[in-house]
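Task 17 of the worksheet. Students: predict the tertiary structure of the chain below and write it out as structure tokens. Keep your answer in the requested format; marks are given for formatting as well as content.
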Amino acid sequence: MECLPVEVVGNILSHLGTARSVVIACATCRKWQESWRNHLHTLTFNSNDWPLYHEMSTSRLEILITQTIFQTKGLQCLSIIMDDVDEFSAAPVIAWLMYTRETLRQLHYNVRTTPNINILEKCGRQKLEALTLAHNTITGVDPSYLRFPSLKSLSLSYVSISALDLSRVLIACPKIDFLSLINLDIVMSDSQASMELAATSLKDIYVEAVSLDKFILEADNLQKLHMKDCTLEVFELVGKGMLKFLKIDDVSVIHLDIGENAENLEVVDVSNFTIMWAKFYHMISRSAKLRKLRLWGVVFDNEEDEILDIETISSCFPLLSHLSLSYDLKEDALNYRLRGSFVLENVVVLELGWTVITDMFSMWVRELLERCPCLRELVIHGVVSETKTHDECDKLARFTSSVVNLMRKYMQVELCTMEAFQRHCWTECVVFPSNFFPIVLQHADSCCLQQ
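Model answer:
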């Protein structure tokens, strides 16, 4: 270690993860102390890393963090995550930000202060490339003054901000390509909760736990859209057809419109979602490049003549290689019925699932296997209740025997079974060689394999 240059030691210290670990390591010798002062580029304070953080008074914590930061030069990444810690005074926090602002590239900030600090004002017009804010309030954004010329990634969690100010923040970030919005408290100026955002450079957006009447996103270069646990009446995406990845997880939306952005879609992942099949089909039907389609726990609010059939999937998505369908027996079996003589010739991974097991599920698995000549992996998901009636045990036994017999015909296919027990929510995933036919039932205390 004595032969290592101080620059290399500084790089090593930067990968230790926590400020406490860095301080302890630097106590070993003067060379390491010099590396800390002059060549440390990453420093992290996280209240979850050390229990004593919660036992210290806020004034003591402020002094400790101030002394540690002020002994460094050239910090590029600073993380101050103080969950479940009392509010800090504004003065020392401002001092930390002003001391590091000239060299800082990444800031991860979750600190409550009295009074509230305008973090954007303190970090603007600098070299910052990534900014993560949590549990803060943003007000009075002035796009004519506030500028983030280098910012590429912005994450806001549990932040209170108006729709207008959020729009202005994006205007101030001409190079932004990733945006994460989690559980925002969006302040509205009128009775209608609507938000319009525009960012030409944006490529990736993640939206979670956001409730709005209307959300319009204008992003010409957007490639990835992921929404989770959101409640929206209207969502509209305005772009230039660059979207490749669409994931919708447990979202309630009345009107969903991605416009002309479906032509280049490669992945569509929809779960716990209710939508009319005709509208959904119209939205993604032109996705000829689609390679992965996942419809899991999806309820199609169909009229009598609207049926989701696998033949439609086969004809619309010729490049499809990964197909995942959840078979909900509470719905009409025609929702996933097999019609025609179609073949899913490029599907190599097939995932199928049940919520309530019946004999029809085995028939469905067999029919789909026959239509996937190039299949290499079959994944079966299911829920098995801990308290089973005699009838349920018989159905499970018949299913086990059916799959074992079925897989003897498909020696080239790997079978992966995932069964979740309702009470313990225990999930097990095992992949076996092609000549082994398992049904895995994982319990808290036991595991049963049948061959």
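Marker's comment: The mean pLDDT is 84. The chain is about 25% helix and 30% strand.
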